[in-house]
UniProtKB/TrEMBL annotation:
It comes from the Bacteria. It comes from Noviherbaspirillum suwonense. Pathway: Cofactor biosynthesis; (R)-pantothenate biosynthesis; (R)-pantothenate from (R)-pantoate and beta-alanine: step 1/1. The active site is at residue 33. The keyword Transmembrane does not apply. ATP binds at residues 26-33, 144-147, 181-184. Belongs to the pantothenate synthetase family. Keywords: ATP-binding, Cytoplasm, Ligase, Nucleotide-binding, Pantothenate biosynthesis. The lineage of its organism: Bacteria, Pseudomonadati, Pseudomonadota, Betaproteobacteria, Burkholderiales. This is Pantothenate synthetase. Homodimer. It catalyses: (R)-pantoate + beta-alanine + ATP = (R)-pantothenate + AMP + diphosphate + H(+). The reaction proceeds by a bi uni uni bi ping pong mechanism. Beta-alanine binds at residue 57.
Amino acid sequence: MKIISSIDELRDQLRGQLRTVFVPTMGNLHEGHLSLMRLARKHGDPIVASIFVNRLQFGPNEDFDKYPRTFHADVEKLEKEGVYVLFAPTERDLYPEPQQFRVNPPNDLGGILEGEFRPGFFTGVTTVVLKLFSCVQPKSAVFGKKDYQQLMMVRNMCRQFALPTEIIAAETYRAEDGLALSSRNMYLSEQERAEAPALYRTLNEVAEEVRQGQPDIFTLERDAMARLAARGWKPDYISIRKRIDLQPPSAGDIAQAEPMVVLAAAKLGVTRLIDNLEV
Ligand code: PAF
């Protein structure tokens, strides 16, 4: 595996490749990331992964400085997955001057759910993804469904900018007890780790009630948040949304069994976890 930090070198290395499949990450790789690499292998060749902790997508009071950085362990894992190039730019490589041009995501998708609780997050994500795509020029790129809104945002951006990259969605990788794998799980204490699967259990309970045709989604959401709060969580949201655009379903949508997804974000101690479940 070649480890490259400069954009020019990356371009030289990938020149002429027409089927590059790209997996962007922020490092601290776990089995969830590795499952993205395995899916990537089915969609193209060579596989290019990136590791870049993108300051632009962190709020001023978020965990940019303490975000886990485990570069050497990550390299070993990627070697084993047959990754051809690891693009690991420094901030100076990727942002040699202040990144003043930024993507401005539409408010109806960018201002809700994660966008409401993490202002600027999707501007930061889409800006870095656009820039990474410009560096790697992939034919396809893999994103996990765990970050459901991010996946949709990137897809919509590609469509509206007519980018030639196909976005491939990977299923969420879960621990045996249901907890979605995330780099932020490592902030959890032992006790919190034991409690953490309650988030996914709650999503399953809500999904089941939606499946049974319970029309009052406001009450479902409110009760689910109250159940989590009673267990010591601080929920930001539990929301039942239409899969197509992440907007709230109307009564008609529910009656016609419109495909839906339940999305949740909640804090357990200092750790903010997100998860979702398609209905
Ligand atoms: O999902 C992530 O790890 C990040 O948001 C991404 C897509 C690598 C952009 O920094």
